[in-house]
What does this fold into?
Amino acid sequence: MPGESKLVLSVVKAFRLLGILSEAKAPLSLAELSERSGWPKSTVYGLLSSMRESSAVEQQPDGRYFLGVRLFEYGCAVSAGWSIRSWPGPFCSIWRPRPASRSFCPC
It folds into this structure.
């Protein structure tokens, strides 16, 4: 149907797991990820295995999972395309009236 988005559930779930790992700020076990997501361990394990293959998720020797280096690389690629002068645009008008804050705004 036009205008209707078709989501790939496994991709949505994979990003949810990445969000859980990010919020945890510490490596989590398969059981912890299963509990926090509400999904069966088999589902979580399959998603983690796929993400490990691309280094989006890594696994410690004790079995706990954490965000992988590939996500850092993606973040660097995104930030390389940003212009610091164009990003804060709407916020600069807030900062401009206060000269002391001007130093924080590159516009």
User: Anything to note?
Assistant: The first helix runs from residue 9 to 24. The chain is about 55% helix and 5% strand.
